[in-house]
Amino acid sequence: MKIELPQVGESVTEGIIGKWLVAVGDKVEKYDPLVEVVTDKVAMELPSPVSGTLREIIALEGETIPMGGVIADIESENEETAPTTTKEKQPDLEAHSKPGKEIGTTGILLKDVAPVGPTGSGGIIDSASSEGDIDRDQERGNRVIYSPAVMRLAEIHDVNLEIVTGTGRNGRVTKKDLQNFIDSGKASVNSKNVDHDDKKGSITDSVATKDTHPNVPGKDEEKITLSPVRKTIASNMTKSATLIPQAWSLVEVDVNSLVELRNKVKEDFQKREKVNLTYLPFVLKAVSESLKEIPLLNSSWNEDSIILKRQINLGIAVAAPDGLVVPVIENADTLSISGLAHKLDDLTTRAREGKLTVSDVQSGTFTV
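^ that's the sequence the OP posted. Answer follows.
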């Protein structure tokens, strides 16, 4: 059974594979966590939809996968055995098949190749998941056919696939070959700059002058590898600096009266509401009222237009263990100081414990 990255919200289009919590060959029960997935909204654990054995990990750690993309293969306990499936399908395949096409120069017939699965028997091979092979034996014209899994990995790391040495049959390059090539630090040629045109078949001039060797830390330096969460934060901050008009305004406010009020009521408030009364609920209330008075501030930029938001949904920046997250209080303008304090306590607690859901971080219109 192919395991797909589920759709978790309209605004979430892709996720980064953070860390696999199980290994190939491990048995899992339904709802057991399989993998940590990081989106631009939140980090989450993806549970197994079935009980069974993990046959293959298709999406590697650190890889960006679109929602709905296949990330793993699980042999379900309810799944029919592969030999039975093969026997049922074989007559139909033979009845409608044409003579097999020779592959490469050694020459084998496709009809003579017995189907084998990931464990050595049963099931028909899935070209996108069987080890991520690059089938160098199959060609269309002058173009080499690569499996989607390997092409995806090569695109992420900007690798020119034609300079990778394969260890498989007839020089076939596996996903393991490509991963070893990347880990060796030799991935210095950008695959996007390779001209695959059938007539030219050559590397463009831009590749020859581009230096993509990774920076090596000096003697007195230390290299800290970014987690998927921090990579996402960095990407979003860079994007926001490009897409959102930047402005700076500073206003000093005398809050002596607020300090006196809080000090006067905070103990009774804590006993009555069972949450602490901080300054932030007062700030959120002031922001909500201000956005109602000046709705243009509660808007977003859309290239040639401005989109005014009808709801006042306040995002709250919270420092979590893995980085900054922004849970959202929806319809904040309808809540009292007490209501805001309760919402804050719930969201910040779950943010620091890594228990936020995607719905907790969506629909924000203004961030504090």
